[in-house]
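User: Hey, quick favor. My workstation is busy. Could you predict this chain's structure for me?
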Amino acid sequence: MNENRAILKKGKDKPVKNRHHWIFSGAIKHLPDFENGSVLDIYSAENEFLGQGYFNKKTSIAARMISFDDRPVGGVIKENILKAIECRSKFFNKDTNAYRLVNGEGDFLPGLIVDKYNGVLVVQISTLGMEKLKNIVIDILVDALRPECIYEKSDIPSRRQEGMDDYTAVLYGQLPDALEILENGLRFIIDIKNCQKTGFFLDQRETRNLTGAFAKNKKVLNCFSYTGAFSVYALKGAAVSVDSVDEQKSVLELAKKNLQLNGFDADTNKFYAADVFEFLRRDIPAYDFIILDPPAFAKRKTDVVAACRGYKDINRLAMQNISAGGLLLTCSCSFFVNEGLFQKVIFEAAKDAGRNARIIQKHRLAYDHPINIYHPEGDYLKSFLLYID
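Assistant: No problem, here it is.
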């Protein structure tokens, strides 16, 4: 028997034949002796070759498919990275120099995220299998793009499940002291080393556009504002004023700089270092437009019930502070809270707030965050734009 061969149980090969990237441990009949993270050939119980994937015995997702054929793994990775770069070239021009280049399974490269921030690439690796392929990835990126710097920011909880520690370092070139990006012609300073995610919430670009389109003549409240991207878009859309709330003082200082960088007054537009739940319970004037883009309330499946309570509470409080005929943009990035459940939570929040709410727009997927049609689990971000009576 081929020592590099993994065999699935009878009847458990359908997801792989349907080009799904994940194989759960319960689907595996036989594994050879191997080092975690190694690439193995995968066969059905009927001895049909299914493709190649990297394996880790420590995780419930025991394997992730790299290819559904027998081509050399390095060649497959190169082809998929180049296709991902080509895809982005069709959607962005000189007005935007920050976007996601590789979106994991969405670009057929499980465990790999690559974000472009002007001349800097930020790599995030979430799986041991992709970690073992990292040198191949970096060589391809350098050869294809000649970036100023490649910085790895792999500081996510999933690495510990894979048996890895967090890791951040410059992998190539030199990271500039200050980094400025363009998004739809708007300027933002980002702090890659000390930021959330890889530097910027690139996945909300189209939702920020939506915000700008509806902000004219409105008094806006941006909750969980972080470094102020939604605030800048609202002001570009001719909002009367924007108040930004975040519990981190340091990110509010960066938000002020981002407003000023785009020519907006950081005195007229207020910044509040506060817990959003507490802020919305204050005696505050009504707003015409409230934005809720909180961090994930459910990071594990066991968090769902508590997360839904949190989403209900924050949306109820927001609705109680919106003027009649106002707007609420509410978002959830919790993978374990799907769109249907999130909509039910919003329904309960509206009922408890005693407000009528109508959905006038749903989430607009960012072009650089493609969802692999064979891997629907990549669809994690939900948004509703609500008209509140």
